[in-house]
Design a protein that fits this description.
The structure holds 2 protein chains of 2 kinds.
Chain A: H1 13-18, E1 33-39, E2 45-51, H2 53-57, E3 61-66, E4 100-101, E5 107-113, H3 116-124, E6 127-132, H4 139-142, E7 147-148, E8 158-161, H5 164-170, E9 173-181, E10 193-199, E11 202-207, H6 212-222, E12 230-233, H7 249-261, E13 265-268, H8 271-277, E14 284-292, E15 298-310, H9 321-325, E16 331-341, H10 354-372, H11 376-382, E17 394-395, H12 400-411, E18 423-425, E19 428-440, E20 448-453, E21 458-461, H13 471-483, E22 490-493, H14 510-535, E23 550-552, E24 555-558, E25 561-564, H15 565-572, E26 576-581, H16 586-606, E27 607-608, E28 610-622, E29 628-638, H17 645-664, E30 696-700, H18 723-735
Parallel strand pairs in A: 1-13, 11-12, 15-16, 17-27, 21-22, 29-30
Antiparallel strand pairs in A: 1-5, 2-4, 2-6, 3-5, 7-16, 8-16, 9-14, 10-11, 10-13, 14-15, 18-19, 19-28, 20-21, 20-26, 23-24, 24-25, 28-29
Helix pairs in contact in A: 10-11, 10-18, 13-14, 17-18
Chain B: E1 3-7, E2 10-14, H1 23-30, E3 49-52, E4 55-58, E5 71-73, H2 86-94, H3 103-115, H4 123-129, H5 141-156
Parallel strand pairs in B: 1-5
Antiparallel strand pairs in B: 1-2, 3-4, 3-5
Helix pairs in contact in B: 2-5, 3-5
Classes of the chains: A alpha+beta, B alpha+beta.
Amino acid sequence: MRYVGQPIDRLDGVAKTTGAARFSAEYPYPNLAYAALVHATIARGRITRIDTGTARKTPGVLAVITHGNAPEMKPAPKPNQFDMSTLAAATSVNYLNTDEVYWNGQPVAVVVAETLDVAREAAYLIEVEYAEYPAAVDFAAEEGNARPQKSTMLSEADGRKGDAEAALADAPFALDLRYTTAQVNHNAIEPHSTTAYWDGDHLILHEGSQNVAWVRDHLAIRFDLPKQNVRVISPFVGGAFGGKSFVWPGTVLTALAAKVTGRPVRMMLTREGVFRTVGGRTPSIQRVAIGAQLDGSMTALIHTSVCQVGRTGGWSEQVTSVSRHLYDAANIQVQQNLVGMDLLANTIMRAPGESIGSFALEATVDELAYELGLDPIELRARNEPARNPLDGKAFSHRLLMECFEEGAKEFGWAGRPQEPGSMRDGRWLIGMGVAAAYHPAWRFPANLTVRLSDDGTVLIRCGLHEMGMGSATAVSQIAADALCVPMAAVTVAYGDTALPDTTTAGASSQTASVTASLLAACAKLDRAVFTLARKTPGSPLRGLRRADVTARDGGLYNGSRGESYHDILRRAGRASVEARVGADTRLGEIADQVRSMSKFLLDRRRWVKAACGAQFCEVLVDSDTGETRISRWLGVFDVGRVVNAKTAASQLRGGIVMGIGLALTEETLVDPRNGRIVNASLSEYHVPVHADIPVIDVRYLDDPDPTMPLGVVGIGEVGVTGVAGAVANAVFHATGKRIRDLPITLDKLL
Amino acid sequence: MRVNVIVNGEAMTADDVWEGESLLYALRERLGLPGAKNACEQGECGSCTVYLDGIPVCACLVAIGQAEGRSVVTVEGLADGESLDEVQRAFVECGAVQCGFCTPGLIVQAHSLIASTSGVPEDAEIREALAGNLCRCTGYEKILDAVRLAAARKAAL
């Protein structure tokens, strides 16, 4: 392969460094109007009066839309696993079509004006009165109301092997610990933004999205339109991390505002607006208990969790997933629980479940190692399973211990004194910690077309999403190799519902999903072109068998006999040849979904597939103030094949930095009295900055997974897993203190 | 009011502008220059960094009235036609760009840091200078690489 695996510059790099890239709030339209939201200030209740008089009279205001005058919209559909697009609704609330308030921050009015400042000023002038209902908004107080989560086809919420409680009671060594993690928010740098306009009964939307087909399908339902009447355009997405997977209120209300005013309307949420209307990662309460023999072999592993969901929606995180796969315990019990709250629906965020679940599990394993007097890596090696511990399924590929070995060598792990508090540099206590990283591999159906034109260029049309990962660059590399053409000849059209529906850019699945279809389409195209060449009179390839012919240098050749794609198509009188994967009819789509779902389930019955890795961390803790700084980091990963060495390393590194935020600084504070987020800004919600982060060394083993297309496992999320565990373990090694509550802020260390 | 600003060397005007409106809004919505990004509107994230009379500022914190008659350079003004500035080139080559939303602000800030430093700045200096520019994607490392590379190339000119 000429391109796959190489550190190739991303194709959109120039557009993004010169300011030429257009994000969703940057499409100019004549007569553009601006919208601003008014947010509810109670958690649960009903609007009893809403005074919009002064707002309406403000010069420049075009419309003030409330439940009193909003056009009727259809409600969000009930979730149905056989029609994935029904999962697109982030909440079940029919915004501005109801006087009920379900969370503190729910939009209760939209102001549309000639300028953004006028829209905002008028929004401030709207007075709303409420009748308040009792509301459950304090997560810590609601723990007792949690109920077992139900398993679904996509996510297993419980599991059991043997009798873990009994084995724990009998174990010579046992730990039974409680962990808590705070709510955190994605805080993609681009706030959610929509530019919408109506052309008759067609709705056109510029929207930063991880799933343009879902946005289209959802809006078609809400506005009662055929889905071909809705177009969603999203070539550039300014970060997402799960926060742009579902359809949140701002999107629906911008389309509504454009409908009411008959103007193109832009709504770019303020950072506060993002916190109030786009869910974050659930807080969690977790129990991890491990029983072990004197030699460290685990006899019992119990991992349970309590997370929240909003009453009008919310995505349950697979917090205990790591405990299904990481350690070969004789008895295992995992159980996830949920409690419904009168808060904004939480949602998926980078490695939903594994990011926080691995914190609790990996901190407990570290604690057990210290109890037993074993090196934490040695303890892991003694419990490394040959097959999936919970159910005995085969691993498709797993080089976890190889990651630990390489990491230990590179990081200088063996040389450290194991005694906590034994390394010091002046005021700074020094500690080293390690943890496993783990994220399941996923693959979903993806449609696309590949077209070869008579000028030798290749066009891939594919509704994939580019939130920064380098998806289009990776797809170009793969296609160029598959067709043996120069990368410069390949163009990828993406981020638009005018293109074939791809898949969600989530669960680290997009590259694997698209690759499978892309390779199939390229093979189809190759056959079609060869057949054309073989049959065309005068062709040098006439009469040859495919096996006699090699694709190279942008053409088909048998030794020196053959010709370029350009010549093959010209000779045959064809302007282009196209191959398609995926149906283009509704019936075909349903058949495809059923087929792929059964394939997916069969595959899952057979294999456990995942990316994994070893996270090594060194911290400095100020012995006077408790301030914790990360001084060194090394992550070694097994992520199957790496398609682009340049973009892959940044995906992993970015995950690690997000994990450092989760471990040390990030916390969305919800007022326990009224459910209002009190730090809805980047000044009070602390994302790690340049000066917080040391050199982060990232390595990967680059060993393809034999069961995945091209051996690709998925790279977007594994980087964040294990990070908080490694930090907490390093903090213990520095200070002798076990902090089991994230984030590890300095007050907890004093 | 009518606003007169020199943007990227070109005299520009906008009419019927409220003087309290931000420079960022005026650039993005009135002058057709959406390169500077809007992400926090409180000077926390640095995505809207532009030069104002040669000094990097958060355009979200500058009222357009304050920019009257002054010179603004945005990310759109750094390249010389098709030829990228060294900082832009280094960001692409080093993989310092991901989603691209923080990139314009970072490039202007890095451009200013390099312009005010002789030779290649120390790592600690770079981290401190760019601490006001949040990035959620890259993990920062390659931004550091890009700044070092651009500084070295500029120093060699």
